[in-house]
């Protein structure tokens, strides 16, 4: 006869077996499983898999497992895994939240003691000082960089040749390389090739965010302690110097679109971006951006080049550096094992593999020569010029505010919305800037309430 | 008082609970649990990572002072107010046309239904091309056919919502199928009787088709309103809420707060307000339904 009770008991036993067996301490007693959360970048993931396989072979007691999620889901996944009490052991600022956002929520482990202990293996001096600065929270190192991105001018040399213009300089201290000069060149590069009354080729695309152009024009949107991990209390734009710098920067950017007409409008840019990264489409002569403009294979029908970012204001030069520091979950069960893998990924040999397969620049200075070897074949610049451009890009830089300013993404989304009417040619810079300051400050005040509790 | 059950009935009851248990367990864990949790979170300061801190009604107070909350509500109501009635009228007209006896009708029905099958993201990307102010086919046709300079559509604060409403007609195939089924259920003798009495097509439509279809119209109206208040994909993929908050749909604002700004508590409060709004609207429609919905089984209208 069918025994209802014993049937139920069996069901319960079976369910509990399957539920608890995967997290049972007995199963993994000998082997530590370290999870690492990564974004589904088609170039990065195969390299990560390769590095993990190598690591697992040489470390029999540790098993590293990658969790790959789409870029947009990186933060939600990280935060929900955290809420579930099973955070990934290793993560990084792969999406919108920065390591400071993580640090303020006490998510990442402070690596100081590990770094001192493994001084020799790590060789901290080999990293770009700005890269370590870009992983430091109120004096504590919160992550170990495994790759970088830098800002420069990337250009389509063929379009320069066609227009009979000299390539821009690689020197960051050349006083004649100014914003006005760049705009002049951009005008010459902007063309209606087929004569239908529409521009087919634009001179310049400046992709820098507001805080970057504020830097370039000699101002700052934030107080300096904000970049060290202290939550902003308000924008620093109440200081005339900062306000005027950003106002001027906004005016200059808007002029690119509607006065000089050398940059694509948002509608045109949307079309260009659907064809691929703007520089690679051949529709844009110069791009000021992170070096992702030259990631991956470059189309062979054009020649390419890199130049220094020009002076917007004489004597002032500051561009953005993007550091990718690997962080370890503070609540991880396997902090030591996770550190072993972080060390491995940040090692020169691993960074070299990543660099060679993805064209991402290493955060280690000793690998700069290899990077130049890697990129020089498709560039018009000599190796000496590339050395010059890179040394400037790492000298006149500060870490991306997205990583270092608490709640940055939300603030950015406010100012992105507030500047829409400016880029669409509907409002004037001053009007836009004044409401922007008010709105961002309101958001900052709201965020401060969250931290103080 | 509970009557005593026979052993067989009791056994059957047990089996009932046993076999329905996957659903009950799933409902309690994955639906009821999160719903109750979100009610609790809506009274908390909660960033997902650190544990929630009780702050009472503060999230709800903040909501009424938050200009973006009102903006999101405005955008969503505007969209809902236009897209739902227009969608119903349009799909009813097409359904009536498809209900005529002409050759090749099956093909037309299929063609009108096909768009509903394609996923939201793909459709959004497609319409981004159509709406592009400088290179899109819509503005190209407007210029070629009528010599009209089309608006900037998704890049214009005034035109982004009308654009999304136009795009929403892409998915009316689902409603058309429902209306077709309804139209075919109307007894032909009603029309015949009306014809004998000398009614013209318009009178037949007004006095037979509409009343007979009213329960179905009620259903599509309620579903349409609920759906329109939950618009997310188009805004997330196509406009990100812009330009200048002009397409900041309510659910997009919830998503931003929950998963991008780490204000899960505030997002929960927003969700509960949305729930109450939809509940009230649905109740209002149901309460008003005796005035305009005709059921054959009831005597009066």
The CATH superfamily of the largest domain in chain A bears the name Periplasmic binding protein-like II
Mean pLDDT across the residues of chain B is: 90
Assembly state: heterodimer
Approximately what portion of the residues of chain A adopt beta-strand conformation? 5-15%
- For the termini of chain A, the CA-CA separation is 61 Å
Characterization of the model:
The complex is a heterodimer of chains A (453) and B (301). Chain A is 45% helix and 14% strand. By secondary structure, chain A is of the alpha/beta class. Chain A folds into two domains: 26-149 and 323-375, Periplasmic binding protein-like II (D-Maltodextrin-Binding Protein, domain 2, 3-Layer(aba) Sandwich), CATH 3.40.190; 150-320 and 399-405, Periplasmic binding protein-like II (D-Maltodextrin-Binding Protein, domain 2, 3-Layer(aba) Sandwich). In chain A, helix 2 (44-58) links the parallel strand 1 and strand 2. Chain B has a single domain (66-292), classed as MetI-like fold, CATH 1.10.3720.10. Chain B has helices spanning 7-41, 58-65, 67-98, 105-113, 120-131, 137-146, 160-168, 173-184, 188-196, 201-229, 233-239, 250-260, 264-292, and strands at 44-45, 53-54. Chain B has a two-stranded antiparallel sheet. In chain B, helix 3 crosses helix 8 (173-184), helix 5 (120-131) packs across helix 11 (233-239) and helix 10 packs antiparallel against helix 13 (264-292). Chain A binds chain B through residues 4, 8, 75-76, 79-80, 82-83, 96-97, 101, 105-107, 198, 265-268, 270-271, 274, 407, 409-410, 413, 416-418, 420-421, 424, 426, 446, 449-450, 453, and chain B through 11, 14, 18, 45, 47-50, 53, 55, 62, 128-129, 132-135, 152, 155-157, 241-245, 256, 259-263.
């Amino acid at each position: 006869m069918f025994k209802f009770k014993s049937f139920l008991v069996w069901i319960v036993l079976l369910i509990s077996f399957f539920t608890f067996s995967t997290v049972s301490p007995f199963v993994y007693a000998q082997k530590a499983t370290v999870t690492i959360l990564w974004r589904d970048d088609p170039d990065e993931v195969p390299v990560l898999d390769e590095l993990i396989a190598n690591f697992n072979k040489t470390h029999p007691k540790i098993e590293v497992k990658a969790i790959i999620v789409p870029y947009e889901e990186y933060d939600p996944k990280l935060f929900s895994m955290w809420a579930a009490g099973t955070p990934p052991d290793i993560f990084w600022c792969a999406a919108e939240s920065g390591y400071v956002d993580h640090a303020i929520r006490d998510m990442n482990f402070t690596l100081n003691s590990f770094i001192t202990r493994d001084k020799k293996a790590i060789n901290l001096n080999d990293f770009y000082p700005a890269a370590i600065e870009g992983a430091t929270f109120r004096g504590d190192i919160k992550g170990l960089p495994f790759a970088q991105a830098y800002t420069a001018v990337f250009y389509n040399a063929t379009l320069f040749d066609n227009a009979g213009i000299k390539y821009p300089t690689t020197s960051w201290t050349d006083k004649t390389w100014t914003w006005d000069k760049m705009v002049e060149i951009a005008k010459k590069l902007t063309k209606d090739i087929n004569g239908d009354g529409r521009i087919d080729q634009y001179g310049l695309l400046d992709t820098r965010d507001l805080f970057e152009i504020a830097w370039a024009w000699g101002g700052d949107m934030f107080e300096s302690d904000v970049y060290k991990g202290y939550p902003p209390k308000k924008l620093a734009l109440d200081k005339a110097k900062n306000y005027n710098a950003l106002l001027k920067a906004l005016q200059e950017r808007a002029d690119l679109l509607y006065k000089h007409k050398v940059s694509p409008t948002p509608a045109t840019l949307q079309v260009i971006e659907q064809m691929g990264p703007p520089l690679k489409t051949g529709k844009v002569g110069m791009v000021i951006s992170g070096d992702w403009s030259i990631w991956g294979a470059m189309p062979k029908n054009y020649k390419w080049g890199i130049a220094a970012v020009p002076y917007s204001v004489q004597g002032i030069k500051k561009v953005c550096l993007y550091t990718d520091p690997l962080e370890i979950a503070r609540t991880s069960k396997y902090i030591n094992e996770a550190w072993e893998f972080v060390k491995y990924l940040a090692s020169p040999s691993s960074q070299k593999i990543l660099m060679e397969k993805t064209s991402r620049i290493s955060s280690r200075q000793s690998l700069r020569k290899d990077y130049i070897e890697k990129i020089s074949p498709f560039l018009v610049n000599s190796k000496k010029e590339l050395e010059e451009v890179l040394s400037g890009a790492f000298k006149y830089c500060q870490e991306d505010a997205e990583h270092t300013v608490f709640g940055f993404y939300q603030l950015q989304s406010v100012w992105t919305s507030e500047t829409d009417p400016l880029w669409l040619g509907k409002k004037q810079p001053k009007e836009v800037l004044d409401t922007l300051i008010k709105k961002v400050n309101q958001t900052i005040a709201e965020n401060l309430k969250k931290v103080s509790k | 008082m509970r009557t005593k059950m026979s052993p067989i009935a009791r056994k059957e009851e047990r089996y009932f609970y046993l076999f329905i248990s996957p659903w009950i367990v799933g409902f309690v864990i994955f639906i009821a649990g999160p719903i109750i949790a979100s009610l609790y979170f809506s009274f908390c300061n909660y960033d997902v990572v650190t544990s929630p801190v009780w702050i009472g009604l503060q999230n709800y107070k903040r909501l009424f002072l938050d200009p973006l909350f009102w903006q999101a509500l405005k955008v969503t109501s505007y969209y809902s107010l236009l897209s739902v009635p227009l969608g119903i009228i349009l799909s009813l007209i097409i359904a009536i046309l498809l209900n005529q006896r002409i050759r090749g009708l099956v093909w037309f029905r299929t063609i009108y239904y096909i768009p509903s099958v394609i996923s939201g993201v793909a459709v959004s990307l497609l319409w981004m091309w159509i709406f592009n102010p400088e290179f899109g086919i819509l503005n190209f046709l407007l210029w070629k056919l009528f010599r009209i300079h089309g608006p900037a559509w998704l890049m214009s604060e005034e035109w982004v919502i009308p654009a999304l409403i136009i795009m929403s007609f892409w998915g009316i195939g689902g409603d058309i199928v429902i209306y077709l089924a309804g139209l075919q259920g109307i007894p032909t003798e009603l029309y015949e009787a009306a014809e004998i009495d000398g009614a013209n097509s318009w009178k037949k439509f007004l006095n037979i088709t509409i009343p007979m279809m009213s329960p179905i119209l009620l259903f599509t109206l309620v579903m349409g309103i609920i759906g329109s208040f939950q618009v997310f994909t188009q805004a997330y993929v196509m406009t990100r809420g812009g330009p200048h908050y002009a397409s900041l749909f309510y659910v997009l604002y919830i998503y931003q707060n929950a998963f991008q700004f780490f204000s899960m508590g505030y997002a929960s409060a927003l969700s509960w307000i949305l729930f109450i709004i939809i509940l009230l609207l649905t109740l209002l429609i149901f309460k008003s339904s005796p005035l305009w919905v005709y059921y054959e089984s009831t005597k009066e209208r």
